[in-house]
Amino acid sequence: AQTVTQSQPEMSVQEAETVTLSCTYDTSESDYYLFWYKQPPSRQMILVIRQEAYKQQNATENRFSVNFQKAAKSFSLKISDSQLGDAAMYFCAYRSAGYGNKLVFGAGTILRVKS
Amino acid sequence: DAGITQSPRYKITETGRQVTLMCHQTWSHSYMFWYRQDLGHGLRLIYYSAAADITDKGEVPDGYVVSRSKTENFPLTLESATRSQTSVYFCASSPWSTEAFFGQGTRLTVV
Q1: Chain B residue with minimal CA distance to A107?
Q2: Per-residue pLDDT of chain B (111 residues; tens, 9 = 90+)
Q3: Residues in chain B within 8 Å Cβ distance of A91
Q4: Residue B41 burial by CB count (10 A; 0-12/13-18/19+): exposed, middle or buried?
Q5: What three-state secondary structure class fits A113?
Q6: Cross-chain residue pair A43–B45, CB shorter than 8 Å
Q7: Cβ B97–A108 below 8 Å, yes or no?
Q8: Rounded to an integer, what is the distance from CA A20 to the centroid of its chain?
Q9: Cα separation of B21 and B48, whole Å?
């Protein structure tokens, strides 16, 4: 079974600085998707970024980028120029590309942004 | 309204009662999911469905029942609620293998 591990329960960053959130996963499959979701205090789940495993290029969305290391099964999220609005719980998630594919989440990392 | 909607948003029920959480999506997505969110555990998958009339267990299915007679609806029933089922429940839907889109969540308290 696929598992997702986020080893940092909580992180802090100063406003305008850069922070990296870690995620590792375990799978025997070669074709899959990885995601980072943000959950602010409103509880709404918001997709931050998506990475297809067959793509070597790391995904980027504005201030958010990932470091995808397929061999190491690592998928970290870098937030540049952190803003107060980035404060939230961040979840890493894995999904197989095959039929009947579940979406599996890590335990989450709380990100605090200091002004 | 377009999107995915959960109802109710908040529910308080007594131990032993049956309660059903509703989920409705307007995109005709094939996949639908039910998760529960508890502190320290992230989102744990309860049940999911790849299409109408096809459902499968997730990580924590005990005490829950689902059905999917129509593509757009995926209700979750707690047959006999227990205090350990106090949680925030999220429904989500997705097309094939891409990201899932989430409802607003239902906060369920079992007293």
Answers
A1: B42
A2: 679 999 999 999 999 999 999 999 999 999 999 999 998 788 999 999 999 999 999 999 999 999 999 999 999 999 999 999 999 999 999 987 789 999 999 999 999
A3: 42-43
A4: middle
A5: strand
A6: no
A7: no
A8: 10
A9: 14
